[in-house]
Every structure is written in C-alpha cells, then in structure tokens.
Amino acid sequence: MNVLQQMQRVSAIVGRRTYATTFVPPASLENVARRRDSGKPLPQSPNIYTGRPSYYDQLNALETALQHTQRALRNLQLLPLPQFARDAIPPPNPVWKNKRVLAEEIAESLTVTRYRRVINLLNQLDECRRIADVAGHHSLAESLARVLQDFEPANKEAVLARGKRKPVKIDEYGRSYTIGRRKESTARVWVIPVQDKTGETSTTSVQTPEAPLEDELSAGEVENEGSKAPESLLDPVPDVPPAPVEVTTTNILINNTPLVQYFAHQADRETVVRPFKIAGLLGAFNVFAIVRGGGTTGQSGAISLGIARALVAHVPKVETILRKAKLLRRDPRMVERKKTGLAKAREAYTWVKR
C-alpha cells in the first residue's frame, strides 16, 4: 500500500467522526461574557479615513443644510422659482473668506478645486437665504444667515465699501472737487459754475440734451426778470436780450495756465472740453486743475475724467449721457514695462551677425 492510499483512508475515517458540541439557546446569549473592548476610542468623524476629515465634515454639513433648506422651500412652494421671480430677487453681494484663511481654520491644506466646491455650496445657500427673505420667511433667512456668518470675513463691510465711490460734494461756494487719473497722470479738478453780473449762476439757462420743455420755459422767465413790465397791455414790451456768458480761454486753467497755452495740440484740448460738449454745458463752468505726472495725453485724459465726474455732481441729468460716452470710466490701459533683454516692452534689439 503506497502512501497515497494511506492518506485517503485516514481522511475517510476522520471525516466520519462526529464531535459533541454544547448547544447554546438564543435566550441565554445575554449571559455569555462579552469580549472585552480593545480600549481604542471610537473615531469622532466618519470621514477619518479620507485623509481630510475636517474638510469633509464641513462639506457634509453644508450639503445637509442645503438639502434641508431646499426641501423647506419646496414645501413652501418657493422652488423651483420662475425666471421673472428670480430676476426680482436683489443681487447677491457675498464676501467669503479666502482660501488661505479657510485652510487655517480647517487646519488642512486646500486646493483650488476643493475651495471652489465649498464656495459653490455657500453661494447656493446665500441664494436660498435671499429667496426666503424676499418671501417673508425671516426665521429661515436668519438661520441661514447664522450658518453663512461663519464663512464671512470679519471686515466684510470694509470689503464691500471698497468698490463704492464717495459722492462728490459741493461746498457753500458752489465748487466741486474731483480727482481724475489716466496712465501715470493725476489731476485735481475744481469746477465752479459761471456767474453773471447779477451774481446768479448761468447753469439754469444752459439746455441739456434731455432738458424738458418746462426747463426751457423757466429759463425764459428767469431771463425776462430783469425787463420792466409794461404798464398796460397796449404798451410795447421792451426787447431786452439776456446778457451773454463771456467764454474766454481763462475759463479753464491748468496749473495756472490757460488751456490753449498749456496744451499745444488740438487733440488734447478737445479731450479736455469733450465732457462739456457732450453734456451741452460748454461755457457754463469754470475749471481750475492741478495735474502732475505723465505726458500731454495722460494729463488731458485725467482732466477730462475729473471734469466729467464734477458735471454729474452739478447736473445729475447728464450722468446717463456721459456714461454712454464712456467719460465716467477710468481708462485702465497703462504703459507696458520694459523687459530684460529687449529694447522696449516688446521690441528686440537689432540682430547683428558680427
């Protein structure tokens, strides 16, 4: 008998053996001693094995809040919102913490993709907050505002105020002070209404392109105030023309120099007086400007921007006209810097073979 046959016989005998085991009924399992705990604390976060538990905990909390909010708005029949109702919602002005600050609070590094994922959820929650606020559900809006407050910077009001321009004020003498910039030039501009011999400003008699008929009639009444009224209807009405406004080159002084003498080129002079021509207020204001830096093109553009901003303060009706003409916009174009190894910004040196 070989070894293979012996092994088969032993395995057959062992397979026929039966062992008696104690049967434990289910009711007595409670009395069985439980296995001792290993002593390791349970993980506080279910995302411990992701490698970034703090980030995914914040992400899951925002997703859960968004789901509950959308469900509540659907129950209130505020979602889905039609387009005309969505257009009536006030525009958003969210200011969130930047990637560096948010990473420091989470104590984990954030990539741009993960940061955008958080910002996307915050924008959706902010939209739901605005919908609830407009619909009159202030309790829901306040709860969402408390959630979003943790992701807003402490200087939110200061950040929102950066883009707002301070209104131009007119002093007791009727002067306005504005600042204009173009390229490397900066101009400080004072605009003063022209006064006639009676001491009244002549801006009332200047017709703007959008002036209504009532303004023309009121201007005619002001002009005829100086004429003597007839004693009877049969007496002829004296024809007294209004005193014309004297417009000379000294109405616009730049660095205490008349406009014609300061700018030798006609194009620069046209740039300075362009806001007056477009607004229809040529000869209605005196201008005194102090300009520094840059060349003639930059200085004329800076003065033009300062004059346009001042005209809006004196005559608010011309704001639309000047804005359409792009005179209220600071020209962002700047001179490109010179590069190392090049003759200028982009021009290369002449190649010499020898």
UniProtKB/TrEMBL annotation:
Sequence ranges of Acidic residues compositional bias: 212-224
UniProt cross-references to InterPro entries, sorted A to Z: Ribosomal_Su5_D2-typ_SF (IPR020568), Ribosomal_uS9 (IPR000754), Ribosomal_uS9_CS (IPR020574), Ribsml_uS5_D2-typ_fold_subgr (IPR014721)
Gene3D superfamilies the record matches: 3.30.230.10
Name listed for the protein in its UniProt record: SSU ribosomal protein S9P
Single GO biological process annotation from the record: translation
Organism field: Obba rivulosa
A GO CC term attached to the entry: mitochondrial small ribosomal subunit
Pfam families: Ribosomal_S9
Residue ranges, annotated region (Disordered): 198-238
Domain of life: Eukaryota
Keywords for the protein's UniProt record, in alphabetical order: Ribonucleoprotein, Ribosomal protein
PROSITE patterns (UniProt xref): RIBOSOMAL_S9
Family statement drawn from the similarity comment of this UniProt entry: Belongs to the universal ribosomal protein uS9 family.
Keyword 4Fe-4S: no
An example molecular function term from Gene Ontology annotations: RNA binding
